[in-house]
Amino acid sequence: MRAVRLTAWGQEPALVEVERPVPREAEVLIRVEAAGLCHSDVHVVDAAAGALPYRAPFTLGHEVAGHVAVLGPGADGTTIGERVVVHGPWGCGSCAQCAAGRDNYCDRRGDLSWHGVGLGRDGGMADYVLVPSARHLVPIGDLSADQAAPLSDAGLTSYHAVAGLRYSLGEGSTAVVIGVGGLGHLAVQILRATTASRVLAVDIRDESLALADRSGADFATLLQADTARVLRKRSGGVGVDAVFDFVGSTATLEMATAALRPSGELALVGSGGGQINVRKPGFLPPGFRLSLPFWGTRPELAEVIALARSGALRVETERFPLSAAPRAFDRLRQGQVRGRAVLVPD
Ligand code: NAD
Ligand code: ZN
Ligand code: ZN
Known about the structure:
The protein is α/β, with parallel strands linked by helices. Helix content is 27%, strand content 25%. It contains 9 helices and 18 strands.
């Protein structure tokens, strides 16, 4: 079968021929129908050797949808042919967090050489992907694979970030989404679908502002020197209740903290490597709270799929055949993808 592999650190991913895995014990082999391409894949490919705990080579692709093709002798909880999306964070499988489907916060994360499917373990940019257990699968029914795959990370991570701050996003509240790409355009839709907040969006590309608009944002603006002031004004003058930063550069973090009202919330999702200074006395708003949400839980993935099947979420996708993966990576790196790039085995 074909697979898009990180063959060695510092190398561009390569489409290569590998052996199709045979599931053992509780493992399940999935025939891939679609795999999303996340900006984290670019961060992984660009990482220096030793920066991540993963061992190369491995197959990329952590947003995977398909159908069950082969069951290991001890597999249960699914059937051949069932259409599924993969819950991608794979923890140790035995701690209390993993037992509750919260592998994204596995207590043994520091001892593992992976973070999940396609992140240190062979992923879904391939004809088939091997999943350790059916507990990592969520049924999708007749949802299309190119919609379902991005929901497992772009959708789930955004949903988890919003869910963590939902208590502060009641009637009259204002939320800001910075970076309206694969994750951000779904965050806008999820805020609209699950909270009462006014939704403001910020990006550096005009096409992303148009995407924010189509996703239901009340207002979208380019990042400029006075953006924090513009956002405060749009919130009614007091400052915004929550900022979801899908970029995470020093510039976006500083803008975010300047836009927040007292007791405002900042959810930092983007891996832009920026920094803010936390100290008292200082410039952060009193009551300021910061969270670092990572991916999402299995029960939340089921909720995201249900939301999409109800018609409340629509992923904007650019489809590429699996064989065109290098072109898709180039486009994402150059900031040219609108919504989510999805690879489809051809
Ligand atoms: P993407 O490339 O699809 O979208 C990024 C968007 O941000 C684009 O619209 C781009 O124009 C915009 N942007 C870039 N620089 C900006 C700036 N300075 N100000 C405002 N907007 C800017 O990326 P994505 O796949 O949505 O991922 C977003 C980030 O989230 C990445 O850093 C990724 O690694 C990270 N991520 C984190 C998690 C997590 O669990 N914490 C999960 C998935 C992705
Ligand atoms: Zn991702
Ligand atoms: Zn665990």
